[in-house]
Design brief:
about 65% helix, single chain, 9 helices
């Protein structure tokens, strides 16, 4: 049985590696359940090497900088040579980093002042969200969105926030509207 504060005493490295292990286990669970790795049409789309949305990054910056908006994941895919396992690994890393932020800023604080049962429910809802896990196990940009949104919510540095809003636009045009909600 967990002590009252045991969820609030985990180190950042334990959270990171626990998150990676959870991602790997969930990845294999989806495979066992027969969920196709390329179930989402976008997964195939992002891994296509002849994608028209990707040109030489520096050429675009100098010729028409606004055209890079909403093409960020294509560039990440190109940078990783459209490799399925590298893209999934990147999602696992972003999922784990997001969990560190969630743990450090929300769960750790909450667990110090609440019962074990409430802490476990919050831990499950924020840290082990099955839908977020599912997204991280597929070649999709949503894991990066979630990372950026959580970072925007948690950190209060103006320059970082401005950079993250621009980064959101790099992955999806007009995504700043999400921030108005």
């Amino acid at each position: 049985m967990l002590k009252k504060n045991s969820l609030s005493n985990l180190s950042v490295s334990k959270i990171f590696f626990l998150s990676l292990i959870i991602c790997i286990l969930f990845y294999f669970l989806e495979g066992i359940l027969g969920i196709n790795r390329l179930y989402h049409p976008d997964s195939i789309h992002y891994m296509q090497q002849n994608n028209e949305n990707v040109r030489d990054f520096l050429d675009i910056i100098f010729s028409s900088p606004l055209s890079i908006l909403s093409t960020g994941y294509y560039y990440i895919s190109k940078l990783l040579n459209h490799n399925y396992f590298l893209l999934i690994g990147l999602n696992f890393i972003f999922y784990s980093l997001t969990n560190i932020f969630i743990y450090e800023k929300i769960i750790k604080t909450f667990c110090k002042n609440h019962s074990v049962s409430k802490s476990l429910v919050l831990f499950y809802l924020l840290f082990l969200d099955p839908y977020r896990l599912h997204l991280s196990c597929h070649v999709l940009k949503e894991t990066i969105y979630i990372f950026i949104f959580i970072t925007l919510i948690i950190f209060n540095y103006k320059f970082l926030r401005l950079f993250l809003v621009v980064l959101l636009e790099f992955f999806r045009a007009n995504s700043f509207f999400y921030l108005l909600i």
